[in-house]
Write a structure and sequence with these properties.
This protein has about 100 residues and is mostly helical. The protein has a single domain, classed as Orthogonal Bundle (MDM2), CATH 1.10.245.10. It is about 50% helix and about 5% strand. The protein is built from 6 helices and 2 strands, in the order ααααβαβα. It has a two-stranded antiparallel sheet with strand order 1-2.
Length: about 100
């Protein structure tokens, strides 16, 4: 058992190519993050930067994001979504 753990610790993890593939945002998502093609990881970073800049994280339950006028269409018209639901909704706006 100890030998297996030692082997795994030595290997370096490769990034998944699917996450690194540039994706094009729809017009509604482009209003928040910009219109240039970028990998999903970068899309998530830009959305979080927007959320933090505008103070959209819920004060009581930090796992929830409150939508403003730009994010509401991205979130399917919902006023508030959880951070886990957010990634699912954002992926619908990437081609």
């Amino acid at each position: 058992m100890a030998k297996k753990k030692a082997k795994k610790a030595g290997k370096k993890r490769k990034p998944n190519a699917a996450f690194m593939k540039p994706m094009n945002p729809t017009a509604t998502l482009a209003a928040v993050i910009g219109s240039s093609a970028m990998p999903r990881t970068e899309v998530t970073k830009k959305i979080w930067a927007y959320i933090k800049k505008n103070g959209l994280q819920d004060k009581k339950n930090r796992r929830n994001i409150n939508a403003d006028d730009k994010l509401k269409p991205v979130f399917g018209g919902k006023a508030q979504v959880s951070m886990f639901e957010m990634t699912k909704l954002v992926n619908k706006h990437l081609k």
